[in-house]
Design a protein that fits this description.
One of its GO terms (molecular function) is exo-alpha-sialidase activity. This protein is mainly beta and about 400 residues long. The chain contains one helix and 26 strands. It is globular.
Amino acid sequence: MSVDATLPGPRDGVLRPAPDDAARVQAFLPSPTVQSHASFLMPLADGSLGCVWFGGTQEGVPDISVWFSRLEAGNDLWTPAVRLSDDPTRSEQNPLLFPAPGGRLWLLWTAQVSGNQDTAIVRRRISEDNGRSWGPIETLFGPRADGGTFIRHPVVVLDNGDWLLPIWSCVTRPGEKWVGDLDYSAVKISSDQGLTWSEHRVPDSLGCVHMSIVDLRDGTLAAFYRSRWADNVYRSESHDGGKSWTAPVPTDLPNNNSSIQALRLADGRLAMVCNPSSAADATERRVSLYDEIEDEDPSGAVEAKPEPTPTPGARSTFWGVPRAPMTLAISEDGGRTWPLRRNLEVGDGYCMTNNSKQGLNREFSYPTVVQTPDGDLHVSYTYFRQAIRYVRVPLGWVNAGRGPAR
């Protein structure tokens, strides 16, 4: 049986009402590359909405670069995409935008050699005019002793002025290729507006990555994690401004070893976008995320390494769980439970391949969510690794989904 993996609409950036849902407005961003993935939304100081993502041929290939588009306030058209990075030796991934206090807009992203996430560094550009022009590319965090540094989620600014950047470290065993088994989370904290940073590891966070931090505004920071084991979304807390954390514990939301993002809403509740599926839903399993590409290191600095041999009795990263549905969930208890859920997208979520050129991948993944002052929720996510879909819904749209996701 053939499966249609074509986009249900043009990548022209035009906002249109969903054919079957008048409350939902959506668009495919004007991404010009074969593959588009890992989008990140952020309201900007000029009233526009910015979106960054990575695009190229395929994740891990050195033609992967960071792209940027904006939706001007009151407009119904995303601007043509602009490429903001172009290192021919590294795959540049997972961009995020940070409107820093004082008016400067930071762009952060990772840069790795081929599929070796243990080589990842973090780069930065700064804009003085809300992303219309950008300064030079700098390295914010270089190579670390135990692996690569990865980012995905927003910088959090505390009332005391501290900046918190959640990271995770991509670690390998000597002589083996990275697959994710030894990854752990930490928080970078700056008390001098990004000039210097200290690092604070999350205890017992092996396999808990993509840390998404939410300020509950009661002296508590809650963090939510993707699970390398593809079992559940995990949660931990900090009561000292991110310097120490409780060990992550599972929530009632399943997780498929794919990205999630959490947000505190204006009414105090939390929202999360995620794929509520797990290894229990999988019928196949991949060796690793980059099992389709050869090591490509033009400098020759990184040798090709074999995939690791599973360690008896140890947990191993689960790749290949379907990345669907794409669900918007609401919590009324600080993220411990998520009883309100409604699906933004449904499908088989096939992700045993990252191939976009031949239309083989059918995942909905890597979501991001923000709320604007009018209360609306804005979400973007990967669609078949071919495009970035943007969706705007009123908050009441989620409330209509009380109970099991539909």
